[in-house]
Amino acid sequence: MTGTTIAAWGLGPLLGIMIFLFIFRIVLTWYPQVDGNRFPFNLVIWPTEPFLIPLRRIVPPIGGVDITPIIWVGIFSFLREILLGQQGLLTLMSHV
Description:
This protein is mainly alpha-helical. The chain has one domain (3-94). It has four helices and no strands. The two termini are 12 Å apart.
């Protein structure tokens, strides 16, 4: 087992979990009355907020809607495809 294979096994679930958390975060924006400091919502908000804060400085809300979680879903999906997809870098390196 190579280091590339181990990295792919660890990176795949991590990227998948982050995509799921950001999608759940998008759904939570539909319910502004939700208290983000209460369980179970804090399990979604605390890991995603460090990614959202810097991006919010660059991308302002559009029409009052925060689109930064959508951008992060795109970024993590892109990374997952580039690294672990059928023609991904780590996938191709593990078959060499």
